[in-house]
């Protein structure tokens, strides 16, 4: 198997073994930490796999998250026997070692849409597959919407704690 096909197969295996969609930075981190290939090769492979319909992507919090499609699962089943035990062990150990960070990164959602009166921001938090908050509210400007979305990741815990405290009293 040529290296290009191997990297794509590894990428699909990484996505198939993850319980969460993976961001570009997580995928790139795996390949660089394990010294398989560089950022540019990963970007090229992500683009090609998406173009072939083998993976899908979703934009959230200024990040792109990838998942394996059904077509990708089918393709992987015919190729996964070509992944060595060492590579499979690297994938599994990376996911185990980084599970907490991966789950935290993908558990928050923040998007905004244009509305008749301005913009609407939607903030979500998911824990163990269960959505614990899904909050949508209006904001007057695109800049405010973008700032709220960017700040949700770093301020979500404090915001949720403050909301809880104000409602429990």
Draw up the topology in text.
Elements: H1 3-17, E1 22-23, H2 24-33, H3 39-51, E2 55-60, E3 63-68, H4 70-79, H5 85-106, E4 108-115, E5 118-127, E6 130-139, H6 142-168
Antiparallel strand pairs: 1-3, 2-3, 4-5, 5-6
Q: How large a portion of the residues is in β-strands, by DSSP E?
A: 15-25%
Name of the level-1 CATH class of the largest domain: Mainly Alpha
CATH topology of the largest domain: Arc Repressor Mutant, subunit A
- What is the helix tally? 6
Largest sheet: 3 strands, antiparallel
- Supply the CATH architecture of the largest domain: Orthogonal Bundle
Q: Structural class, please?
A: alpha+beta
Could you give me the name of the CATH homologous superfamily of the largest domain? Winged helix-like DNA-binding domain superfamily/Winged helix DNA-binding domain
Strand arrangement across the biggest beta sheet: 1-3-2
What is the number of domains?
Answer: 2
Distance between the termini: 63 Å
Order of helices and strands: HEHHEEHHEEEH
What's the β-strand tally?
Answer: 6
Helix content: 55-70%
Radius of gyration: 19 Å
